[in-house]
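Please decode residue identities from the backbone states below.
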């Protein structure tokens, strides 16, 4: 009856008020998780941990927009959050929370030695997945990598996190006192130096020699080897230029425009791209072993393996 209905509404209203009051107590602690663990106010470890993970959760659409704005966590970006809210359908309050969390974590781990994801986990106690997402976002922002949606429209947030995580794992220093927010400059210089040792004609010759048996193989498209030669030259062109900051920031744009689009335009399925990249690595290793370029193999492999992983992720994105 009407009395029960009125009673139920009052209970809901009281419970909602209590929830808001509890959140007002917890939110300042969420911003400094070590204080959460030692607070005498909180004595619900499982519940507070669940709430902490939710508080730092990221919506893929919002995170993709934030890193795709081509700027760090600035006041101007914060003012644009209403645009991001309208575009993604995520409430402005949620967009603000995610923006503030990224900025807070960035500030906390900036300049710290060691793995970014581990530093985030150590201070904030977030899940491995969330830590890796924040680490990837921070790497993109810190290195100003251009992932503007209109320039790389097919690059989804999950694909972006996977690719950046691979680059951080393979191309960042692992020595004590270093951080994986910084790309290994010594490696990029070594990669650039290959330009003076491995000419374009040598690359083409490596592919021709290593893929001789594929040229007239009916199981492969007639233009497969020809496109593989182009792939080798373009991939190394990208690699040689990564030592320059501007070219490093454009890495995903270049992979899309110079590798993936031409491959598709040539009528080749992306299912053959993995084989092509594997063949390219094998051709280089075999040729380098027999031509006095053995010392360059480790640099070439360190470049091509993560790039291949990124290309395969992007081609499925």
């Amino acid at each position: 009856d009407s009395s029960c209905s009125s009673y139920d509404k009052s209970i809901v209203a009281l419970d909602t008020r209590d929830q808001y009051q509890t959140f007002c107590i917890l939110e300042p602690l969420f911003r400094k998780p070590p204080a959460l663990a030692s607070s005498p106010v909180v004595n619900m470890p499982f519940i507070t941990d669940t709430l902490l993970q939710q508080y730092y959760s990221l919506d893929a659409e919002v995170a993709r927009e934030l890193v795709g704005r081509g700027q760090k966590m600035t006041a101007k970006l914060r003012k644009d959050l209403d645009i991001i809210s309208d575009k993604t359908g995520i409430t402005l309050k949620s967009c603000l929370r995610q923006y503030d969390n990224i900025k807070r974590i960035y500030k906390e781990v900036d300049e710290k030695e060691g793995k970014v994801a581990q530093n985030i986990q150590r201070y904030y106690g977030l899940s491995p997945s969330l830590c890796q997402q924040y680490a990837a976002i921070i790497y993109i922002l810190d290195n100003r990598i251009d992932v503007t949606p209109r320039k790389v429209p097919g690059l989804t947030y999950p694909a972006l996190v996977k690719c950046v995580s691979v680059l951080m794992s393979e191309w960042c220093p692992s020595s004590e006192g270093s951080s994986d927010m910084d790309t290994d400059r010594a490696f990029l210089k070594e990669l650039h130096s290959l330009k003076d040792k491995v000419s374009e004609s040598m690359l083409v010759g490596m592919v021709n020699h290593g893929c001789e048996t594929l040229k007239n193989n009916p199981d492969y498209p007639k233009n497969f080897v020809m496109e593989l030669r182009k792939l080798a030259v373009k991939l190394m062109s990208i690699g040689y230029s990564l030592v320059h900051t501007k070219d490093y920031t454009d890495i995903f744009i270049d992979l899309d425009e110079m590798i993936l689009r031409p491959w598709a335009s040539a009528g080749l399925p992306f299912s053959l791209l993995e084989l092509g990249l594997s063949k390219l690595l094998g051709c280089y290793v075999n040729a380098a072993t027999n031509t006095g370029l053995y010392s360059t193999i480790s640099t070439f492999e360190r470049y091509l393996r993560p790039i291949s992983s990124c290309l395969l992720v992007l081609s499925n994105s």
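Observation: The chain has a mean pLDDT of 87.
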